[in-house]
Design goal:
The chain has 2 helices and no strands. The protein is an all-alpha fold and 51 residues long. The chain has one domain. It starts with a helix and ends in a 6-residue tail after the last helix.
Length: 51
């Protein structure tokens, strides 16, 4: 389950970067970034290694 959160966070960060550089999706892409950060913070709070 924790590994899945990390994979989702990485995918969301990559999607945010693509959107930030190439496309103009407005606030949706920033919501994806916030979700990715929350997923990484959950892993840190649970005491698991990020990488």
């Amino acid at each position: 389950m924790g590994n899945l959160l990390y994979v989702i966070a990485v995918i969301l960060i990559i999607a945010w970067l693509i959107g930030f550089i190439g496309f103009n999706l407005g606030g949706i892409i920033h919501i994806l970034l916030v979700i990715a950060i929350i997923a990484v913070l959950l892993r840190v709070i649970q005491g698991r290694k990020i990488i």
